[in-house]
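Figure 3 (text version): structure tokens given as input.
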């Protein structure tokens, strides 16, 4: 059977779930159970997305069977923590390490990542010789450029990302997808900056003043798996006295890259 492993930052779990729900060719879905899988598993239960759950240690039980199951197609999902982005080299090491662990049970691995601090730009080349029987692919736009990050992928690639950044260059602007809107406390580290939350908040507000941040952009992805998007955006904006604007995103790059690797490993 063909097994595609999707290795992703948890911030893109909604985009993964959208793919899983919209591909009728999938025979089986497996989620790696870890500290990052709770939310996507809850969402799968709510939308009736049938799946199995394995620990990473149990993944070796998945075999590429012969016989009647040889035509089956399985998608395996493994999510990594958002906080890895603070340390690009740590992120790279974790991604490469996990790719090595998933490769023995995978026909191909799709990374739901971009350059991410310019540390993942050569991942396809690095694994081409190390894993000749398991192609490793990363998110690329229509110009075959690796996307900058998850926001760039949601906006449609590097060119569109640059246009958006130029359009909001008058004021420092956070760009929030639904998942970013529920993870903003982790994103701005309010709970880590100081033992006193109020003091931490004042410090962050001062930082925003110094750096010129005063706006949050609600990036409409068209996905509704993450609840209370409007309320979460408003909470963030009210906390820091930001204005709110809206931008449009889509799943085109995620869908394109997924379908390309599916074709590569299944045909």
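Below: residues designed for each position.
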């Amino acid at each position: 059977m063909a097994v595609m492993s999707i290795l992703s930052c948890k911030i893109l779990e909604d985009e993964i779930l959208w793919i899983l729900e919209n591909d009728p060719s999938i025979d089986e879905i497996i989620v790696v159970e870890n500290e990052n899988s709770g939310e996507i598993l809850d969402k799968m239960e709510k939308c009736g997305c049938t799946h199995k759950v394995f620990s990473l240690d149990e993944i070796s039980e998945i075999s590429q069977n012969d016989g009647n199951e040889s035509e089956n197609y399985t998608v395996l999902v493994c999510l990594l923590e958002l906080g890895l982005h603070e340390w690009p080299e740590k992120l790279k090491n974790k991604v490469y390490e996990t790719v090595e662990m998933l490769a023995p049970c995978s026909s191909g691995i799709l990374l739901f990542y971009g350059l991410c601090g310019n540390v993942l730009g050569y991942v396809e080349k690095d694994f081409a010789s190390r894993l000749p029987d398991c192609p490793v692919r990363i998110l690329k736009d229509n110009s075959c450029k690796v996307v900058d990050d998850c926001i760039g992928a949601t906006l449609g690639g590097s060119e569109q990302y640059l246009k958006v950044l130029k359009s909001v260059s008058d004021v420092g602007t956070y760009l929030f997808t639904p998942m970013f809107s529920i993870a903003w406390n982790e994103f701005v580290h309010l709970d880590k900056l100081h033992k006193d939350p109020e003091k931490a908040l004042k410090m962050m507000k001062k930082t925003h003043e110094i750096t010129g941040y005063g706006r949050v952009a609600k990036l409409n992805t068209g996905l509704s798996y993450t609840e209370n998007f409007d309320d979460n955006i408003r909470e963030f904006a009210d906390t820091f006295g930001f204005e709110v604007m809206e931008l449009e995103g889509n799943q085109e790059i995620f869908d394109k890259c997924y379908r390309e690797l599916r074709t590569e490993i299944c045909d």
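The chain has two domains: 2-150+251-266, 157-248.
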